[in-house]
Every structure is written in structure tokens, then in C-alpha cells.
Amino acid sequence: MFLFTISTRLLNQGFLFYHKRLLLKYLLATVAIFSISGISLYFFVIRSLNQQLNQELLTLVEAATPSLSMVKSEGKQGLEREISWVKLFSDQHHGLEWYDDQGKLLAREGHDFIQSPIFNNIQALKSTKKTSVFHRQGKIQTATIAVYSHNPREDKLLLEGYIRASQSTQEIEVVFTQLRLGLQLGGATAIVLVSFSSIYLATETLKPLKKGIQRLRRIMTNVSHQVRTPLTRISLATEMLLNQTSKNQVSQARKLNIINTATEQIRHLVEEVSFLIRIDTTPNLGKVRFNDVSLMAILQSLSEQFTPIARAKGVNLQTQLSKDIIIKGYQDELNRLLTNLLENAIKYTDAPGSVFLSIEQSQKKIIVTIRDTGIGIPSDHLPLIFQDFWRSEAVKVKYPEGLGLGLTIAEAIIQQHQGKITVISEVGVGSCFQVHFPKGKL
Ligand SMILES: Nc1ncnc2c1ncn2[C@@H]1O[C@H](COP(=O)(O)OP(=O)(O)OP(=O)(O)O)[C@@H](O)[C@H]1O
Ligand SMILES: [Mg+2]
∠38-44-47 over CA atoms, to 5°? Predict the structure, then answer.
């Protein structure tokens, strides 16, 4: 019951962790979407307002075209006779300048003229070969056109001069400032609103999941607990019967041995599956809960534990361990991970063979290598070996014992420690499993 309470608390903490992570991701995605949309909208509005301003200036300057010949012949008085531009012209906002074909100023009306000489615009007209050019200087936007008259005798266009219209951009800049402010305020409000709905959505999304996982864990904890007791009783009873069986009752003894082995297998299966469920449903709470673990101590104890087992089957276990390496992690789980790999190396190596256990560290990572001269793994099986309950058909025949969970568990543990396992193998030559622990994260 006590254990169950602890595991439920851990599960709740875990969910809180996932909840926070999900929320953070929702928020980041929302901020990214709003920022991109806001910036795009801002630039779209800037572009269309600028285009609108240019269009207005162009219309004004084109309306003033017929007045150029009047100005050329009569000076500024000519402007009073040719007034088609006046209804588009605002004395407060616009400036209009008439130039001859040499770029000499003939007349000007209104204000907001730019300092830049007309020659720059003439140059731009010539180089772009367009009939109109736009130019901005400071807070003033201009449109300049070249005015031509048609000479019917020579059927040629004759350059009459240039007209330049200008207008202050202050008004549209006020719009830009307001737009920026509106987008910032609107964006911030939207982000706050979306944050609240994210909290609600994340909670709602995780609710059934949390309930399901809690139930699964509860069932598994109970099943493994309930199964363990009768299994232990069967084991004990068969042990007792075995001890009492006299030598001539060989066949009975064999049957009892079968019961004993089968019981052990069921107990092992229940333990492995409940471990997998526990590790899969307990999130990695990171450094906070990790302890200092001596990798060297684990490897040394494994070497001592497995040397007699390896020797018994004609396999030479060689260990190469240098100085102690301390990492952050869960001692029992790291022990389990390395045990599973070493067990495999010894199990799948026939006599005479060797298994090498070594550890090395570089600046970025620590690598534990478990290499064997065993049966090897066909390359098309390599992507499958970490799947739960997977065992190759050939292996099932030659080594019938095994659940196909050892590597699944190893992988789950290394992922919890933010590392990885790599394998290289060749059939008939051997396999090399490497466990990588990233140094920075541990
Ligand atoms: N060192 C190795 N050499 C050759 N084959 C291997 C080695 N390690 C793993 N394998 C292959 O990968 C499969 C999966 O290994 P895994 O440890 O997950 O399961 P298992 O050893 O079959 O059973 P158990 O659950 O008891 O560990 C093995 O059945 C075997 O085919
Ligand atoms: Mg195994």
C-alpha cells in the first residue's frame, strides 16, 4: 500500500511535469504563430499603404502633365490657365515641381519638397527606362515622370521636361505606429487568452490518459503482487518435494523441476513487464532525482558476478576498467541495463569465445562497450532487436530461454538517462553494443 501511494504520487508529479511541458509547447507554438502572423500583417499593411501613396502621387503628377507646356511658355501664370491637377492637389500635403528638359526648375506649388536635386530622378528614369520613378528621402515620398510631346511631322516623341510630386509620409507613419501598437497589444491579449485555453485544453487532454495509465499501473502492481505470493508458495513446495524425492523417483523429480522452472519463468515475466510499465509511465524527472552512481563499481561487481558463469560455459570474460567514473542516474536501473547487455553477450557466445567489457570517456561522453565473439546479428534483424518480445527464429530454437525483453528494458533505461545504445554486429564474428552517456546532461 505504501509503495502504491509512492508510485501514485510519482505518477502525479510526472503528469505535472508532462502537463507543464505540454503547456510550454502550446505557448511556444502560439507565440510563434502570432508573431509570424503579426509581422506578416504589419509588412503587408506597410506595403499596401506605400503602394497607395505612390499611386496617389502618380495620379497627381500625371494630371499635371498638360500644364508643363503652359509653364514653359508663360511661366508660373500658365498654372492658372491649366488647372486639371488642382482638384487632386492639397496645398497642405502636396508639393508639385515643373522642370524643363534640362532639369531647370520652372515652377513649384505647395510644400514638402525634397532636397534631392531632380537630376537624381532623371538619372533613375534613364537607367530604369521607365516613365515614372519613386523616391523617398527622409519623411517625404516623391513620384517623378518625364513628359513627352508628339511631333507629328517627324513622328517622334519630344522630351518636354519633368514633373515631380511629393508628399509627407508622416500621416502613414502615424498609421504604422498605431498598427504596431495595436498588434503588440492585440498579440499580448491573444497570447494571454490562448494561454488560459491551453491550460484548460492540456488538462482536458491529459485527464483520460492519466486515468488510463493510473489504472494500468494499479492493475499491474496488483497483478504482480498477487501473482508473486502463490508463485513463491509453488516454488517452496516444489523445492521441498524435490528434497524429499528419493533417487529412484527420478521421473517425479524431473516433473518437479519442470514446475520449478516454469514458476521462475512466470515470476520473471511478471517482473519484467511490470518494470517496463513502471519505467514507461514514470517520466524522466531529470537530474533532480538522479543520484551519483559509480559506473566502475557496477561494472566491477558485474564482472565478479558473471566471470564464473561465463567460465562455466567456456567463455572468457575480460574487463578493462581504468579510473572511476561517476555519473548521475538511478543505480538499480543502470545495473539492470548493463546486466541485460552482458547477459546477452555471454548467452549468445558459444565456447570457445570471449566477451570484453570496457569503459572510456571523452570530453563529451562516456561509453561502456560490451563486445562479444558470439553468433552475431544479421543486419536485417538489427532494427528489430529493441522491440518488445522480439527474438529471432534461429535464436528461439538454439537458445529457447528468454522473453525478448532484455534490450527493450535496456533501451528504456538509457532513454531515461538521456543516452543511447548503438550496435554493430556481424554474423559468425560477434556483436558490439555501446552505451553512450552524454556527459553534459548527467
Ligand atoms: N550479444 C548478442 N549477440 C547476438 N544476438 C543478440 C545479442 N544480444 C541480443 N541479441 C538478439 O536480440 C534479441 C533480443 O534480445 P533481448 O535481450 O531483448 O531478448 P532475449 O535475450 O532473447 O531475452 P531476455 O528477455 O531474456 O533478455 C535476442 O533474442 C537475440 O536474437
Ligand atoms: Mg537478453
Answer: 140
Which spans in 245-315 are helix H?
Answer: 250-281, 295-312
CATH number corresponding to 64-168: 3.30.450
Confidence grade of residue 225 (pLDDT, cut at 50, 70, 90): confident
Ligand 1: residue of 265, 272, 344, 395 to mutate (most ligand atoms within 8 A of CB) is 344
> Within 6 Å (CB) of ligand 1, which residues are found?
340, 344-345, 348, 372, 374-377, 385, 390-392, 395, 402-408, 431
**Per-residue pLDDT at 407 exceeds 50:** yes
Q: What is the pLDDT of residue 317?
A: 97
Q: What is the mean pLDDT of residues 172-186?
A: 89
What distance in Å separates the CA atoms of residue 14 and residue 284, rounded to the nearest whole number? Answer: 8
Domain locations along the chain: 64-168, 286-438
Which percentage of the chain shows pLDDT scores above 70? 93
Kindly state the average pLDDT of the residues 270-293.
74
Q: What is the 93 CA–ligand 1 centroid distance (Å)?
A: 84
Gap between the Cα atoms of 372 and 123, Å rounded: 80
Span 286-438 CATH architecture: 2-Layer Sandwich (3.30)
Tell whether the torsion through CA atoms of 81, 82, 87 and 90 is positive or negative: negative
The pLDDT, as a whole number, for residue 58 is 92
Q: What is the residue with the minimal CA distance to atom 19 of ligand 1?
A: 404
Q: Quick one: which ligand is closest to 370's CA?
A: 1
Q: How far is ligand 2, taken at its centre, from the CA of residue 273, in Å? A: 14
